[in-house]
Amino acid sequence: MNDAVYYRDTWAEINLDAIEYNIKQMKQHIGTTTGLIAVVKANAYGHGYAQVAEAALKAGADMLAVAFLDEGILLRKAGLTVPILVMGAARPRDIQAAIDYQLTLTVFHRNWLKEAAAFHRMGKLQFHIKLDTGMGRLGIKSKSELEEVLKDSCSSDFAEAKGIFTHFSTADELDSSYFQEQFGKFETLIKGLQNTGMMIHCGNSATGLRFPERLFNALRFGISMYGLAPSSEMRGILPFPLKEAFSLHTKAVQVKKMAEGEKVSYGAVYEAEKEVWIATLPIGYADGWIRRLQHSEVLVNGKRAPIVGRICMDQCMIALTEPVPLGTQVTLIGSQGKEVIPVDEVAERLDTINYEITCSISTRVPRVYTRDGKVEEIVNFLLK
Ligand SMILES: *Cc1c(COP(=O)(O)O)cnc(C)c1O
C-alpha cells in the first residue's frame, strides 16, 4: 500500500477481484482463439487507468485500448508495455509521439497517412484502420477509400497497417436488424483481408456477450469488464452473471435532530414534517454526485435513507428516523448487508446509462483498490 492518504471520508472502492472475474468469464465465453482488448479509456470508466489495466492483464487481457493519445501516453508512463490501441482521432501531426510511445493509432480517412508523412521523423507507426459501417462517427465508408489507405500503407516506409475494425451502434438492443446490417457491411469491406495477418475486430461488450462467434480476432471489452450490463434490455439475457467493481461511500460528519418545520440546505426547500434526524455527508455535486440526485437514496446500516434538500457542491444531507453515531458509513453506490444500490439504479434515476455514472465521479474522490477484501492501494488524485 502506498502512502497516499485522504483526509475526507468519501471514497470510491474498486474491487479488482470483480474486474478479474468478469474478464475470466468473458474469456471463457468467447473462447481461447479470440483476443481480449481491455478498454480503459476515460480513467477506465472512472475506475482508474493503471490499476484496471494491470488487473485486466493479470486476468488474461491481450491488449489495451483508450480513446486518445494522451491516455495511451499515461499508460506508458505508468509502466505498461503491452500493445495499446488509440481508438479515437489522433492528429496526423502527432504521429511521432505515437511512434515514440509505441502506441497503435487509428487511421480513419484517406488523407491521414498523407498528412502524417510530413511530421514523421523516425521509426514506424503501427495503426488499425477504422471502418464506419453505420455508426456515423469515425471511419472509412467505401471500399475505394479503404483500398487507397491500404495502398498508401503498403508503399509507406513509416506506417504499417496492423488491424482493421468497426463499431456497432445497436449491439445492446434486442432487435438485431441494424446490427446485422452493419455486420454485413463489415464482412463485405474486409473481404480479402482475412488471411493477411491483420487483426480484425468489431465487437464491444454487448457483441461479445450476445454474439461470441462474430468477433473475428478480438473483443473490445469495456463496460461489462466493470461488471455492468451494456443496456437494461441486456440485463435479463446475460450469458453469465457480472460482478460490479465500483462502489461509492462516505461517512456522516454531523447528525442533528430537527423539529417539525425546520429546513435543510439552499433554498430551504426541504422542511421537516415531523421530528427527524439529519445527517450531513461530505460529498456533493463537485464529486459527481449531481444536484439532480436530490430525492435519491443511500444506505445506512443496511437500510435506505433519502437525500433531502438541495445537494451542495461539497455536501449533502440525508434524513434518518433515528440518530446514528458520527462516522457511520453511508453507501451511495454498492451494498450494505442485504440492501444494494446498483449503478443502474442511479443511472435510471438520472435518465442516463450506467457508463455515465462511474465516469462522472470526479477525481476529487479517492479510489481505494481492494483484493480479497483487503485494501491494496489508495489513489488520492489531489495529493499524489
Ligand atoms: C468505448 C468503446 C468500446 C467499448 O464499448 P463497451 O460498450 O464499453 O464494451 C469499444 N469500441 C470502441 C470503438 C469504443 O469507443
TrEMBL record:
Residues found modified as N6-(pyridoxal phosphate)lysine: K41
Family annotation (Pfam families): Ala_racemase_C (PF00842), Ala_racemase_N (PF01168)
Signal peptide feature range: none
Domain Alanine racemase C-terminal positions: 245-370
InterPro entries: Ala_racemase, Ala_racemase/Decarboxylase_C, Ala_racemase_C, Ala_racemase_N, Ala_racemase_pyridoxalP-BS, PLP-binding_barrel
Broad class of enzyme this protein falls into: isomerase
Transmembrane regions listed in the UniProt entry: none
Keyword Lipid biosynthesis: no
GO CC annotation terms, alphabetical: cytosol
Keywords: Isomerase, Pyridoxal phosphate
Enzyme Commission number(s) of this protein: 5.1.1.1
Biological processes annotated in GO: D-alanine biosynthetic process; peptidoglycan biosynthetic process
SUPFAM superfamilies: Alanine racemase C-terminal domain-like (SSF50621), PLP-binding barrel (SSF51419)
GO molecular function, one term: pyridoxal phosphate binding
Gene3D superfamilies listed in its UniProt record: Alanine racemase, Lyase, Ornithine Decarboxylase, Chain A, domain 1
Co-factor(s): pyridoxal 5'-phosphate
Catalysis performed (reactions): L-alanine = D-alanine
Catalytic site: K41, Y266
Pathway the protein contributes to: Amino-acid biosynthesis; D-alanine biosynthesis; D-alanine from L-alanine: step 1/1
The protein's role, per its UniProt record: Catalyzes the interconversion of L-alanine and D-alanine. May also act on other amino acids.
Name the UniProt record assigns to this protein: Alanine racemase
Source species of the chain: Metabacillus lacus
